[in-house]
Each structure stands twice: as C-alpha cells, then as structure tokens.
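Journal club prep, notes for RB
We'll compare a predicted complex against what the paper describes. Inputs for the nicotinamide-adenine-dinucleotide case:
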Amino acid sequence: MAIVKELETPEGVRRKLEISSTQTLERIAEFEVATAEDVNHAVEVARKAQESWGALPIAQRTAVLQRALGALLEKQEEVMDLVVGETGKARQEALMMEIWAAADVMHFYAKNAARFLKPESLKLHGIMRFLKKAHVEYHPLGVVGVISPWNGPFILSVNPTVQALMAGNTVILKPSEVTPFSGRFVLDIFQAAGLPEGVLQVVLGDGETGAALTASSVDKISFTGSVATGRRVGVACAENLIPCSLELGGKDAMIVCADAELEFAAAGAVGGSCLNSGHYCCGTERVYVVDSIADEFIERVVENTKALRQGKEGEYDVGSVFWDKQMSIIESHMQDALDKGAKVLAGGRRNPNLEGLYYEPTVIVDCTHDMDIIAEETFGPIVAIIRVKDEQEAIRMANDTRFGLGGNVWTKDSRRGARLAAQLKTGSGCVNDMTMTFGVPEAPFGGRKESGVSQVNGKKGLQNYCHAMPIIVDRLGGRQAPKMYPYTKESFEGMQKTLNFLWGTRIGRWLA
Ligand code: NAD
C-alpha cells in the first residue's frame, strides 16, 4: 500500500490525505476525506435509488454485472497499473488476485444469483402441513456499507459490492485510505456497464469516513480489515441494531506431515508466506513441520526463498511492503523473535539494493509461541518455522491462538489430511494447497474466534445480504378464519388431549 500523509488544511475545510508510492517513495496523489455529511447524503441518494434497483427482475441486475465483467476485461491493464502503483505488488499478483479473482466472482454471481435468491418452499412438519403452506423470499436489506482494506484493494471491494448489488441492495463503498483509487475503480467498471445513478457510490477517506458510514442509517455493514477496527465496527453496528459481516485478520498455520511431498510442501510454504508480499489474510504465517523431515524441508524452503526475485521493474516475484506502518510491524516482530532466540536462514532485513519499502523474503526457524511473529499477525514475506514431534502436536499448537481464519495440511494421504484439517479451529481449511479458500466462491468464507463474524461468499453469503422472509399461507384459502375464542374448559381439555396423543403415542409421533 502506499505511504499515507495528512496534509495541512485550514479549519472547517475537508481534511486531505496524500499517498506516495512504496516502490519509489514519490507522491502519487492527494484526496479529500469524506465527512459525516457527505456520507449521510450518499445514504439518502442510495435509499432513493434502491427502490427501483431492488424492484428490477434479477435477470436485469445480472445483465449489468455481465457487462461490468466485460468492462473489467477491457480495462484490466488500467486496474493493474493502479493497483501496482498503490501497493507495489508484483504485476502477476495484481492479475491473479485482483483481476482473475474478480472476473471469477463476477461471472459466478451473474450465473448463479437468480438461483441462489429464488423463493424456496418450506416443507412443514406435523399436522401443520395439512393446514398451512410456506415459502421463504429473499428481500434486499436496503443500503449496504462496504468497508475494504488495502491488501486486496480491488478484489476486496468488488466481491462484497457485487454480492450486495445482486441481492438488490444499493451500496456505499469506502475503500482503504492507502489504496483509494484501486478501490474506487469498481465504480468505473459498473458505470461503464450502465449501472443506474446512485446504485453504487464511493466515499474516499480514512477511519473518520468509515466510522461515519457505520454510524449512518445504512442497513448492513460488510467490513474487511483488522481485528481492532472490526471490533469497533461491530460495536457501532450493535448500537444501530444492524447486521454486519466482519472479515478480520488471521494467523494461518501450515502443518507439514511426516509423509508430505517435500518439494511441493516447501514451495507451498514459500508461496503461502510470500504471496502478495505476505499481506494476505489467509497467508501462511506459521509453519509446523514434523521433526523427522524438518531438516530436508527447511533446506528446500531456504533454497526456494533465496531464489525469489524482488523488485519493481521487469520480471520479479515479490514486490514491496504495501504500507509504511506494516513495515514497522514486520521489523518489530522480527526483532522480537531474534531477541527471544530465533535464527534467520534467509533474508531478515530490508532489501539494501532497492529504494522504497522492500523487506527481503525471509526464513526464520526456532520460533516459539511467546514470540510476536507467532502470536500476532505479521503480514510480511516471512516463513516462520517451528519443529514439532508429530501431527497431533502440530494441531494443538496451530489451535493455540486467538485467530481462526484458515489453515493448511500437507500429506500424501489426502483423507487423513482432510481429517486433520477438520481439527483446526478455523473458518476453513486446505489440504495440499494454501490461500485457496477465498478463491472458491462456492465456499462460505469467514473466520472463527477473533478472525471474524458471519460469512460471505457462495449461496449462504449472498443470502446474508438479504432478509429471508417466510410467508405462511393458510390452505383453506380464507374461507374459514382460525377460531380461537372463547377459551373454555372443553377447548382446553381438547387441546391437552391432542397434545398427549401427538407427542405421547407412537402413532401420534409418526403423524407429528
Ligand atoms: P484496518 O482495519 O486498518 O482498515 C480497514 C478499513 O477500515 C479501512 O478502509 C479503514 O479506513 C477503515 N476504518 C478504520 N477505522 C475505522 C472505523 N473506526 N470505523 C470504520 N472503518 C474504519 O485494516 P487494514 O490495515 O486496511 O487491512 C489489513 C487487515 O485486514 C489485516 O488484519 C488482514 O488480515 C485483514 N483482512 C482480512 C480479510 C478477510 O477476509 N478475513 C481479507 C483481507 C484483509
């Protein structure tokens, strides 16, 4: 992400932020921070626009999404230029994580939203089934506020926005102040697709604007970001009694079993840790390797890490750290680990050959659970390794954390791998792969413990942008109103008899 600086502005004028490149340290742009009044005005506009957008047949909404996907493919170079400029990530990571992933989710919801949101008939049980029929309709919530982070500035803005829009809501998107223009580009592709005015609006700003959005009269907040901010957002939504999804930080563990294919596991450890310069919520932050194969595994990890090319021009594998504040966190976690006895086998410092914010891809061993590099989210290009006696010890240690986003297990026995992955107290798990769970749109995605609340993605995620409204209809077609009064001794005894028959006899239980 970029380097963010507050500019001096006179009293009573909107605050201004300036962002600079992490690759060159040169100024990129400045922008005004949207105020609470700006946000409240946007909510009013969105509320009006929602009436007609929400009333459109879903086929018309998905047609807009299809056109937006076409616009994304046309403008992909522009999006990549913006993302690489604001973050410093490798261009292929911008292609893979921002464009490819966005195209995939846009296509997925364009194809499936109508099916996921179709009214569902409910099969009633007991004697009620003779008297009533019921179905559930998925109604839009109204106006949804989307707040996104800097590490996947385009995809993490586009994914919740697409889901909220397809469910018939209007959206106010607030991208991170570190990557404002990559986030705002979501509006460009939807405008190019002919999205009606007011259906999607973007407000730029920092925490002040985000807090104003959570305090406004929106009907749901979809938040992706850190645990600390997520907690604040959750409290604000509780005050307003509105739902929120909180997709928060992680500390994913990788477990390398004694029978793992070491060539792939080593490549997986390096890829999982260094992808996106290590700034990936489901990135591998801790590696537990079984002692019997640890030496060979570590040797391969070091070899792979040293082969990575870091840079900003031409072909390179690992880009810059996206944000100056993240660099301070990485450096402080590394120093803490070294002070407590960990050893660096590769990297372990800022890259001396590159100006800008570059931290060398790093391998660090002999890590322990009292180190920040194992206990806190580091979010840097670092493979942090711990040796364990066996897989059960690895599971126990992997679960010894306040985070619970994802985790991965490496073994030649995929069934055993799935059984081990299911023992992780995390939102999701992978076997012989890493970082995948966000990339499978069918899979509901969300963290446990401090890594989040609620789930996004897939059928369940899309339905979470709706109110599921059951409609219960009497089968007698209004020809006979339910008779309740007067309550009498006879009506009481009749009801009690039926109760005892229904749940107190075999035939009754079969009927009920
Ligand atoms: P952050 O919490 O600092 O900021 C996230 C967003 O919240 C930004 O747009 C910011 O301006 C806004 N914000 C700040 N204060 C606010 C407030 N009081 N009210 C409302 N909004 C406010 O997070 P970040 O540093 O941008 O992102 C990195 C974090 O996001 C990491 O912890 C990472 O793991 C996490 N993340 C999680 C997922 C996931 O799906 N679980 C995905 C990507 C990133």
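Talking point for the session: DSSP finds 18 helices and 19 strands in the chain.
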